[in-house]
Specification:
Blueprint: H1 7-16, E1 26-29, E2 34-36, E3 50-53, H2 56-61, E4 65-66, H3 86-96, H4 99-102, H5 105-112, H6 116-126, H7 131-149, H8 154-160, H9 166-177, H10 181-186, E5 196-201, H11 208-218, E6 224-227, E7 230-237, E8 240-248, E9 254-262, H12 267-277, H13 284-291, H14 298-304, H15 315-324, H16 330-344, H17 362-366, H18 377-391, H19 403-410, H20 418-429, H21 440-446, H22 454-461, H23 468-477
Parallel strand pairs: 2-4
Antiparallel strand pairs: 1-2, 1-3, 5-9, 6-7, 7-8, 8-9
Helix pairs in contact: 3-7, 15-16, 15-18, 15-20, 19-20
Length: 494
């Protein structure tokens, strides 16, 4: 069970209640049959009674039950791109989006370009559990969070997290927690609200003001806004439509999301998308360690404090925004995006002062007249081609077999080049190694104000794998750094 984990080290992490390892290590206590997060406030048992695993799914698969005090469902997400094979990272992302709720492991493996047996073997090695066990654990933990933190009916909870029937939901809860869902809810403390409110955990630090500043400058009028310290946006997902709000949580190292929507609300998917917007599954300490001695990045990271890649709630929306931003300023692209929304997007009912529309669907954009909005004819053609490709699933925003395959897929759309494809892969697909090396801003930043050649930048960036996307964001955010002037040395008298 502890394969790949140093037992003495993990026990010291638990003794220190080190939040940096929250979500990366889980503690199974053999004397109680319970598994916990390393920050659990419960009394720490003897080391001989502790077993350490890499995931909550591995603990569940070994027969341990989730702790009701530290609530593993509230742990930060696993930094799936760190220390695992790329196929596993992409599979975990697809599972989080519900891939195994709709199809089997064979279909999931096929999407990754490998065999089902190989995928299972990789999961056992890197995660400690099979893909099916991971999917079941994610459904269960999502259900537990909704039971504890919302007033949703059990039927709504069951279907929103991916259970195919209420009976399966009840059986899963009883098996894992030893009690019925009603008893779990009886002891939970919830605030009365007309919204679904959840907490999302993350590993510190998170520079919330910097994240909001980045998103505010690019917020699409009518669809997104920054109100004080809160990010707000309209959304449509499946048959649900409404407003999502994200703000700092009351508990340390948490964000709080509020969902107000009509229709059946896919809470698990919305929470996963909110996590991606703010890159909550990142491991800042691992990134900082990788960049600590880099001559281009270390000073920039010290100035930034921490770095996360702002993602996107909807890949199509981000792709449209990226195409509009080709060869024009960020402000200009934002203005034009607002015009597109007003012409092609459906109005919200009821609307508020800032959120007035839903972003247009691929079908709506493909069939709309985009003339007179300040978009060139070539760009209009690219937007429509992109919308048709997304509508017919020729382009998707799920992880592909590799970064290169996803970039190639995006580049099949006429008018989308390597720069745009890497940008979309970075922010919409969540590929941490995406790197638009031809970008003038990156080339200038790498030369501290003087552009360097693309090939030279690509050579330098090899040292930044697998986090080239984080390096790109640092260079964009802080394009120049002061080079310290060496102090003159006094000549020694002879």
């Amino acid at each position: 069970m502890t394969k790949g984990l140093d037992r003495d080290f993990c026990y010291r992490v638990w003794l220190a209640k080190d939040a940096r390892f929250d979500g990366r290590i889980f503690v199974c206590v053999t004397s109680t049959g319970i598994y916990c997060r390393p920050i659990c406030p419960a009394r720490i048992p003897k080391k001989d009674n502790c077993r350490f695993v890499k995931s909550a799914a591995a603990a569940e698969a070994a027969g341990f039950r989730s702790c009701l005090r530290c609530r593993p469902e509230s742990a930060p997400g696993t930094p799936t791109w760190s220390g695992t094979q790329a196929s596993v990272a992409r599979a975990l992302r697809l599972i989080e989006e519900g891939a195994l709720d709709r199809e089997g492991v064979d279909a999931l493996a096929a999407r990754l370009g490998i065999g089902a047996r190989q995928l299972r073997r990789l999961f056992i090695t890197h995660v400690g559990a099979t893909p099916q066990a991971v999917a079941g654990n994610r459904r269960l933990l999502s259900a537990k969070q909704l039971i504890s933190e919302t007033d949703m009916t059990f039927t709504d909870i069951a279907f929103s997290v991916g259970y195919q029937s209420l009976r399966r939901f009840n059986d899963a809860v009883r098996t894992s927690y030893g009690v019925a869902p009603t008893l779990l809810r009886r002891g939970a403390v919830r605030e009365s609200s007309d919204a679904i409110v959840l907490r999302l955990g993350f590993r510190p630090p998170l520079n919330w003001n910097a994240m909001l500043g980045y998103l505010a400058f690019r917020a699409i009028p009518g669809v997104e806004e920054i109100a004080g310290t809160t990010y707000r946006r309209s959304f449509r997902l499946g048959a649900a439509a409404g407003v999502l709000e994200v703000a700092p949580g009351k508990n340390p190292n948490t964000l709080e999301i509020s969902i107000r929507a009509s229709g059946p609300v896919p809470v698990r998917q919305i929470a996963a998308r909110a996590r991606r917007i703010f890159d909550l599954d990142a491991d800042p300490s691992a990134i900082a360690a990788a960049f600590a001695d880099d001559p281009l990045l270390s000073a920039r990271l010290a100035r930034a404090g921490s770095i996360r890649v702002p993602g996107a709630f909807d890949g199509f929306e981000l792709g449209v925004r990226a195409i509009l931003g080709q060869q024009i300023s960020v402000k200009g692209a934002t203005t034009i995006a607002g015009r597109v929304v007003r012409r092609c997007g459906d109005p919200m009912h009821p609307a508020d002062e800032s959120l007035t529309h839903y972003f247009p669907t691929p079908r709506a954009l493909a069939g709309s007249d985009l003339s007179g909005l300040g978009i060139t004819g070539g760009r209009i053609a690219t937007l429509k081609a992109f919308a048709r490709a997304v509508e017919t699933d020729r382009v998707t925003f799920a992880p592909g077999v590799s970064l290169e395959s996803k970039v190639a897929e995006l580049c099949t759309v006429s008018g989308i080049g390597t720069w745009t494809a890497h940008y979309i892969a970075l922010r919409a697909v969540g590929e941490p190694n995406a790197f638009p090396s031809a970008d003038l801003g990156l080339r200038k930043a790498a030369g501290n104000g003087v552009p360097i050649a693309t090939l030279k930048l690509e050579s330098i960036a090899e040292a930044w794998r697998p986090w080239r996307g984080y390096a790109a964001l640092l260079l964009w955010m802080i394009p120049t750094i002061e080079t310290p002037t060496p102090r003159p040395t006094k000549e020694r008298s002879r």
